[in-house]
Amino acid sequence: xxxxxxxxxxxxxxxxxxxxxxxxxxxxxxxxxxxxxxxxxxxxxxxxxxxxxxxxxxxxxxxxxxxxxxxxxxxxxxxxxxxxxxxxxxxxxxxxxxxxxxxxxxxxxxxxxxxxxxxxxxxxxxxxxxxxxxxxxxxxxxxxxxxxxxxxxxxxxxxxxxxxxxxxxxxxxxxxxxxxxxxxxxxxxxxxxxxxxxxxxxxxxxxxxxxxxxxxxxxxxxxxxxxxxxxxxxxxxxxxxxxxxxxxxxxxxxxxxxxxxxxxxxxxxxxxxxxxxxxxxxxxxxxxxxxxxxxxxxxxxxxxxxxxxxxxxxxxxxxxxxxxxxxxxxxxxxxxxxxxxxxxxxxxxxxxxxxxxxxxxxxxxxxxxxxxxxxxxxxxxxxxxxxxxxxxxxxxxxxxxxxxxxxxxxxxxxxxxxxxxxxxxxxxxxxxxxxxxxxxxxxxxxxxxxxxxxxxxxxxxxxxxxxxxxx
Amino acid sequence: xxxxxxxxxxxxxxxxxxxxxxxxxxxxxxxxxxxxxxxxxxxxxxxxxxxxxxxxxxxxxxxxxxxxxxxxxxxxxxxxxxxxxxxxxxxxxxxxxxxxxxxxxxxxxxxxxxxxxxxxxxxxxxxxxxxxxxxxxxxxxxxxxxxxxxxxxxxxxxxxxxxxxxxxxxxxxxxxxxxxxxxxxxxxxxxxxxxxxxxxxxxxxxxxxxxxxxxxxxxxxxxxxxxxxxxxxxxxxxxxxxxxxxxxxxxxxxxxxxxxxxxxxxxxxxxxxxxxxxxxxxxxxxxxxxxxxxxxxxxxxxxxxxxxxxxxxxxxxxxxxxxxxxxxxxxxxxxxxxxxxxxxxxxxxxxxxxxxxxxxxxxxxxxxxxxxxxxxxxxxxxxxxxxxxxxxxxxxxxxxxxxxxxxxxxxxxxxxxxxxxxxxxxxxxxxxxxxxxxxxxxxxxxxxxxxxxxxxxxxxxxxxxxxxxxxxxxxxxxxxxxxxxxxxxxxxxxxxxxxxxxxxxxxxxxxxxxxxxxxxxxxxxxxxxxxxxxxxxxxxxxxxxxxxxxxxxxxxxxxxxxxxxxxxxxxxxxxxxxxxxxxxxxxxxxxxxxxxxxxxxxxxxxxxxxxxxxxxxxxxxxxxxxxxxxxxxxxxxxxxxxxxxxxxxxxxxxxxxxxxxxxxxxxxxxxxxxxxxxxxxxxxxxxxxxxxxxxxxxxxxxxxxxxxxxxxxxxxxxxxxxxxxxxxxxxxxxxxxxxxxxxxxxxxxxxxxxxxxxxxxxxxxxxxxxxxxxxxxxxxxxxxxxxxxxxxxxxxxxxxxxxxxxxxxxxxxxxxxxxxxxxxxxxxxxxxxxxxxxxxxxxxxxxxxxxxxxxxxxxxxxxxxxxxxx
Lengths: 471, 870
Description:
The structure holds two protein chains of two kinds. By secondary structure, chain A is mainly alpha-helical. Chain A has helices at about 5-10, 15-30, 35-45, 50-60, 70-95, 100-105, 110-120, 125-140, 145-155, 160-175, 180-205, 210-235, 240-250, 250-260, 265-275, 275-280, 290-295, 295-310, 315-325, 330-345, 355-370, 375-385, 390-400, 425-435, 435-470, and strands at about 370-375, 410, 415-420. Chains A and B meet through α11, α12, α14, α18 and α19 of A and α38, β4 and α39 of B.
């Protein structure tokens, strides 16, 4: 099982603090020697300001040794820094929390800054104190406090780099405090800011040489990779997370990111696709509208798994591959058994083990039913890792749940299911084919009509283009 | 020396005789200063001086050529019909001292000849002639003056006598009733002024001469005799300084050394001036330079001579179409080696393309330059030329003869030279030429198997100058190529980057590393910009893509192989696109220039990708894709799109033939195999395919055959199911498994896949282990309705596409980019020096076509990542 553990690959892409839950999980599942994991935890904690935690871990590791003196000294340092930073930040906070000020603040950051400077003598440097204090609080584990300060900082500051940094910090704090709704919001804004940077860099690349543009592209790839990893926390804890994950990860840019820099994320993508099977199976009944991307998630994911097979493979992806590429139900069954354990041991997926199994079984039986005309119930139950009685129940449920009701019948005497799928009548297929044509033609007509106006627009953009190039 | 003295004696007696004359003339006329107004003279005077000055600055670097133009008649008389170069050689080889003497002697002779003419002129009162001759005389003296010889007494003497007769003439003129004609009078005044000026200039000398002319002459001889030797002296110590390690050479032939080292620069000069002239004997020039190289003493001299020698070797063959003689090439290669080692061993010398101006005639050394001596020249251009000539010779030699193999052996030496140059540029940290030289190196190894690369690298190991990247350090070829490529990626040159990228991909493909190669190709986004690249790069691109297709084929990725090779075979100009043969055009004949350019682009034979093998791979993969597809088409009306047109065409052709004999060519084999596959005879098909001989050219032929057999089994099953499904209502899986000798599992999996993808309307009956077919018979009307619906859908698709294209086409950006691309392509072509404008248009069109080729490929590649990292 240790072969399939991804903690080691994922941790380098996480913040120090975000790794603690992962390591704690490793301690719980006993996959690795506890001692080693604790040592890792200690090494991590030593770099932070969480001295009590570090000392605690140290005692666990070396019960008979004395606590290193460096901690005391560091603690003193930290306390003094804390006080100093707090004072600085408090000054700003006092002003901001003043109701008059809160009312006077507007959308425009520059204007706000001017206002604060004029009325309360508050400069940008002082506002940066908020950031420093927030960061410091984060470093000793007061995540909610950190989130607050960073939020205030972001509202006021105009410094782009620090803002991004504050963004990440806020996201981490929200994740660690477990406020998933807030974290999701944060994640989305962060994603937007990363993606919007692409537009500027694209502009750059068209204006200047490609060489200079390659750098921002690389930076963007890195930040996307990080975002993909961090978002796992949110997506696997938020109630709507799985569909959102599919939505995000299957968008071309993020799919590319996953394929180029972190193919192991495919496991989570695959799992999410399997988990959200119901959403894809019952598009009409679900309250929230699902995009086609999510509906066809499994198909998409299978395609990606196939192309990335040479780079990454684990039982979860192998399961889908065996099922939908090879149609080897026995192999799929085998892979599913291993995948179940992998999912159970995974930090993010652990909770979804039963759901995963359920959905995977459903996928198997669905595929099985579509291909077969007569199915031996015993055989199918065996394929689903169920006893005979359970299997029967399962199949009846399956038939009830899906639209196969009219087509599938159980013959108890012979112990088989008979599936009779009458072929679609020809006129129906023709109707299907021609249905969209009128609409599409109409769209074509309007587009063609608009093209005349667009031509004008184009000529305008033409005249604008030199100025862009100059910039 | 004896000649020198004799000559001096001659001049002595000569001047005595003229002295007598002057004495006599002096007796006739009272020597007096001319009273002519000086003011109006200054203008012409200064001009005269100016011209004289510039003239002499030229002549000062090369007296011989100057005297050539200045006084041809006198020279002819003075030195009877000796060729310029011959004369030089002679003086160089056997009589080192003679040259100098002859020069001063000649000068004196000339002066005397001029003096005679003046005297004659005086006698007949022809002032025009006198004026001309005097000008000449003055110029000669000026020149003498420039080489810091004292003014010869002869000149002073002439001056004095001229002044005397001038005064007499003026007086006579005033008294005479009958005036001189206008020109003559004008010349007289001019001479008068000139003489006056000259007298002023040499006032001191004239005075001394008048006081005691014999003493003056003695003085002159005393000065001239020692001065002619010290003039060359300074070079000798210089030579000693720079070749301090070699005392014996200098000591033994000390004197000879001095003169040769002096002569080297002069000779170099003449050789360089003769370069490129119409009737220069190139072989002769090379011979001269070789001799010069032998006598060259200092590093500086050797470098200079080598630079000249190598370029004249390259000059030897002027025609574009033929190649340089191999012997010359070998010499040139050795000399480049030599040059690099001189430069590498002595960091005080540096060869650069752009240097400050320096005097080419003067010996230079680190001591005189105060640090590094920069010499104008370019090693990288030599390397480029050497490599190009090598390629050209391979293009011209019959690839099936032993000569070709012999020639190929020289690649080792060439590769070593390139590596040495790389080491040199690494040491001197010249980024730009370093990139170029690394590219050359890469191009020698990227397409070669490991053993050949190892052999090439072994020769580098043996050389004393090694670059930082070598096989023995890098262990494997892949790592070596990787390091070379990475260096080029980091360099700023985008052309080199592109080429390095392609070479890298090619190498990966050659090593059967399909996924890495594919990902690199797709991530490089080359397929979007390659049509604006130069022809050479496009050829490299085509090669790379083709190699990638072969790689996919070898790895058993049939679909990928088919998609990759598809586009290039659709053009039906495989050979041309790979630069492995000239395309025969059906309707228009190529102009000779086009043909020549085409020939120049051809790759040497050993770099060819075997087109027959390529075709076999393509056709077999097409067969495996196309035959099941053909079988799945139910009726003529529902024609599905053809995947591979070339294959379809061949198949149709084969179908039309009435009699089919046993297969002979590769194509025949594949066509018959396809027919067998259509009939479900997979064993026969396999035998046909496996008996194709060309597979033996693949390194892992056995594996490939095995893989193909397996694929044929699978596709055979699919074809069988498609073809015969209408005739069965059920079909036992075990029967299928037996017929196609596939395990039951595989059969089930294949059948399931077909059912799932709705290719086959059937389902499995688990209890009986049979496939149950559902067949729907369509009535004629239904069928037609279906066709109409499909056609409508296709039409709407088409309209949408064309509207898209139109909307996209009008946007200003893409338009401009296209134009720019074209221009850049043309410029690149011009820069490559292929030199014909007519080629531009054709090349552009060609680029467009292979550009489409590339784009089509990109689209068809599975798992395309067109937007990675954006």
